[in-house]
Every structure is written in C-alpha cells, then in structure tokens.
Design brief:
Catalyzes the oxidation of L-aspartate to iminoaspartate. 34% of the residues lie in helices and 18% in strands. It has 529 residues and is an alpha/beta fold. Helix 1 runs parallel beside helix 11 and helix 12 packs antiparallel against helix 13.
C-alpha cells in the first residue's frame, strides 16, 4: 500500500507531536508511533524543562551552565538559539494546557545538578507524562494528522535509492507491526523524531522504544552523525529486582538529596566541590568508582531529612513507586545505580533542523544540534525538542510544493519467514551486554576494540538475516541497534582525550581544543539496501 502526505513524522514523543500540531494547520501530516502515542521516552521524563523564567536568572547564566556542563564542546550559536527561545517554548506549552506546578509566586521552579539557579519548570515529578498527555489529546482531535500507531519505520526512501540524480528524502517504508505489511509512505518532507538509543545498553532508564532507529536510518541514507561517544549515564536509577528502568529524578538531588555509602557516609564531596549538584557525568563516574572500589551493588540517595508533605508534593510518583517496593523515602534512603539515559550525539542538523539530505529534518534526542556538547545539562532535552520542533515546522511551511517521484512498493518476493527467530534474541542480548561491559562509563582502547570486533561479527549475521527473511519489529530494532552501537564505538575510538561523558583511561587528559567527532557513510543505490 502506498500513502502520500505533505509531511511524514517518524516518532511520537514531544518533538514529533509538537511539530505535528504546528504543521497540521495547513499540511496533511502522518505521525508514526512504534507503539501508542502515549508510549515515548518523553513521557518518562520526570524533571522538567529548563528555561529562564525568573527575573533573578539570565540567558547568559543558562548559556554558561550549559557550556560548562557540555565541557565546552557546545556550539555557541545553537546554545544561544535554544536558550533564547526557552520562554517562548514554555509559553506555547502553557497555551496548550499543560498544568505546570505552581507556588505562591507563580510557577514553581526547581534547581537541578549543573544549574546555577532555579529554572526548571515542571509538573511535580511527572513532567514528561503531563506534557505528553496534553499534546496527545490535541493530536487525536486534529483532522489533518493521520496517526499510525504500532508502526515502525524500516528505512528512508531517498533519491539515491530510487536511482535518481538527487540527494532528497521522499518518505519511508514503514512496517505495520500488527498486520506485518510494509507500507510505502511518500512525503515531500520527513521529520525524524525517533528518540535516542538507550536500549543499546543492558541497564537503561529508557523505554523499550529507544533503539536508535532514526539515527541508524539517517546514517544509512548518507547523513553525517556526530558525537555518538557521549552517552549520558543517569547517576540515579532505582536499584531493585522488581523495578525496571525507574529513574530517580535529578530534582531529588536538587532539593537536597545526599548520596551515601552503605555506612551512611557521603562521598560526593571527595569527588567534586559541588557535591551532589555536580553535573551528571561527574556524579555517575563517582558512583561507578565507589561501587567498583568497594564491591558494592549500589549506593544510596537519601532525601528523608525533608518533611514528608514536601516529598509528597514534589515527588509523588517517586514516593508512590518506592512505597510499592517497600521503600519509604520519607524514612529510608533509596538504593540507586547509574544507567544509560541520554544520547547526546546524533544526526547533524542546522538551526532549522535540516540534515544533509534535502527534505529530511531531525529534532529531539536523535539529533546533534550542538546544544549538549559533551554532556547534556539536566532538563535541557525537552527544551531542545520544543525549540527544534518549531524550527523544523517553520522551515517546512516555507518550502514550495513539489511532486513526488514514483515510489516502488516494498519487495518481499525474495524473502521467506524466519526459521530461527531465537537468533534475534541472542544477538540482542549479546550486544547489550558487551556494550555495557566494554563501552560504559569508563572506557579503554582495548575494551573498545574488543567491542568493535564483536560488532562486526554481529553486523554480518544480522545483515544476512535481514537479506533472507521477512522484516519484523524485533529485527528492525536489532538492525538499528547494531548500527548505533557501531557509531558509538567508532566515535569513541576517534576521541583521544577524556571530555564530558567520554572518559578513557588511555587518554585521561582533556585536550586544549574541543572538536566534534563527525562520521559519514555514503549511501548505496537500490530500493531496499
């Protein structure tokens, strides 16, 4: 089946939904969701949105904090562009009906690690969910938006793949995960908003949908990808056998939470003068160091010195979830470990969210705008989603109308049903385990080379499997994860220094000049490469 739209948006998190709502006033939009609109990494965000909303704060201070956290690798123009548009982005969400938490002076602003002021507007400790639910209700009522849930993009359709003498995106092949049919979705403009790649690691705070799909597709199409070595490990993921990927928000430390060893002693002041308010990379490495040095399964985050009603008001979700597991945070410390949290690198884009391929845009965690540098400052991610969703929509609305070339249907005539799907499960498990062991918080060249050798073997197996059998949801995700893991390793091997989130024992010093790690693969011809 072939369907045609003005704009195709791959991914239904905050960036995808915000762009869709802005475009739907005058464009016919298709919005692709791997599961339902409610299932995205954006909805898991607890902290909030960082923006200058207080007269005691300033644009310059937010920029300074962002660049300091980013280890001075940030792009100055992109950083200023995002932060100067912060208030407008938040005002837009308020206009859509997002019920941000208030206090006596207006909206309550939290302070998080790496910030020099209170500037994080939030909805208690479920900001992402509240924002997502608000926009989802608007999306479902918008007649110009066709929502395709339980659909996953297989690959982009480019002029190169169609054998045309052009470098342009014309849509994508998309698998209906329920029926098994691969649809051909044509569009003059396509926005990748498919999120990051946290599931490439064994332990992550991300949902199962974070498999690097957008990054891998853009890479295969010929886009530049940059700074993939900078994977942010959130310092405080709940450590409990019954808890899967449950994040303990940065705001807990921002409101006075203390990190403790099992004997009740603090350790962060020994690692950084900012203590628990140091940026995430510093805190994650400190926890990793203490756990390995002492043979610990976890450390502890204690906020029990705060009044119970304060915790119930500011952290109701964390309080309730911990109580379900027998942990009363009003009286007990929370067991925590670091976990893969955010992909700071991604598909290179400009300030209009354009990639190297005409008609192809990117926004959100799949992008590398230059805002985050070598480490994302807490709560800058949802802000980036909003600002670049608007930038992409504005640029798309200025583009002249054009006709699509003939788009071939997906050819499944030469493939058969898979005979050993257990291969997918085994490869998935192997990939995530060696990425955790060899490409984690602390790296060595030897570990990275071992991981690269394993990746090459896995890639060959998966390419062979992909060439001979019908595509499935799991196979598509595994194929994308292997590509994304390879990009992380390639970039890590190229960086001969320690900077931000990339810490190498072989190169522990930081070089005087901060440079991006940029890689590119030329696309191959053929409708289904």
């Amino acid at each position: 089946m072939t369907l045609r739209f003005d704009v195709l948006i791959i991914g239904s998190g905050l960036a995808g939904q915000a762009a869709a709502l802005r475009l739907a006033r005058s464009r016919k939009v298709a919005l692709i969701s791997k599961r339902t609109l409610e299932d995205s990494a954006s909805s898991w965000a607890q902290g909030g949105i960082a923006a200058v909303l207080d007269n005691r704060d300033s644009i310059e201070a937010h920029i300074r904090d962002t660049i300091t956290a980013g280890a001075f690798l940030n792009d100055a123009r992109a950083t200023r562009f995002v932060i100067e548009n912060g208030r407008r982005a938040v005002d837009w969400l308020i206009e859509q009906g997002v019920p941000f938490t208030r206090d006596e002076g207006g909206y309550h602003l939290a302070r998080e690690g790496g910030h020099s002021a209170r500037r994080v507007i939030h909805v208690a400790d479920t900001t992402g969910l509240a924002v997502q639910n608000t926009l989802t209700s608007l999306i479902r009522r918008q007649p110009n938006i066709t929502v395709l849930e339980n659909h996953i993009a297989v690959d982009l359709i480019t002029g190169e793949k169609l054998g045309l003498d052009e470098q342009r995106c014309h849509g994508a092949y998309v698998l209906d995960s329920v029926s098994g049919e691969v649809l051909t979705l044509g569009a003059r403009n396509t926005l990748i908003a498919a999120g990051g790649a946290g599931k490439v690691y064994l332990y992550t705070t991300n949902p199962d949908t974070s498999t690097g799909d957008g990054i891998a597709m853009a890479w295969r199409a010929g886009c530049r990808v940059a700074n993939m070595e900078f994977i942010q490990f959130h310092p405080t993921c709940l450590y409990h056998p019954q808890a899967k990927s449950f994040l303990i928000s940065e705001a807990v430390r921002g409101e006075g939470g203390r990190l403790l060893l099992p004997d009740g002693s603090r350790f962060m002041p020994r690692h950084d003068p900012r203590g628990e308010l140091a940026p995430r990379d510093v805190v994650a490495r400190a926890i990793d160091f203490e756990m390995k040095k002492r043979g610990l399964d976890c450390v502890y985050l204690d906020i029990s010195h705060k009044p119970a009603d304060f915790l119930a008001e500011h952290f109701p979700n964390i309080l309730a979830r911990c109580l379900e597991l027998g942990i009363d945070i009003t009286r007990q410390a929370i067991p925590v470990v670091p976990a893969a949290h955010y992909t700071c690198g991604g598909v290179v884009s400009d300030l209009r969210a354009r990639t190297d391929i005409a008609g192809l845009y990117v926004a959100g965690e799949a992008s590398c705008t230059g805002l985050h540098g070598a480490n994302r400052l807490a709560s800058n991610s949802l802000l980036e989603c909003l600002v670049f969703a608007e930038a992409a929509a504005s640029d798309i609305l200025q583009q002249p109308a054009g006709n699509l070339p003939p788009l071939p249907a997906w050819d499944a005539s030469r493939v058969s049903d898979p005979d050993e799907e257990i291969v997918i499960a085994h490869n998935w498990d192997e990939l995530r385990r060696f990425m955790w062991d060899y490409v984690g918080i602390v790296r060595t060249t030897k570990r990275l080379q071992r991981a690269q050798n394993r990746i090459r073997l896995l890639a060959r197996e998966i390419d062979e499997f992909y060439s001979h059998f019908r595509v499935s949801h799991d196979l598509i995700e595994l194929r994308n994860l292997v590509v994304t893991a390879d990009l992380i390793i390639r970039c890590a091997l190229r960086r001969h220094e320690s900077r931000g989130l990339h810490f190498s024992r072989n190169y522990p010093e930081t070089l005087p000049s901060a440079r991006n790690t940029v890689v590119r693969r030329r696309p191959r011809r053929g409708p289904q490469d």
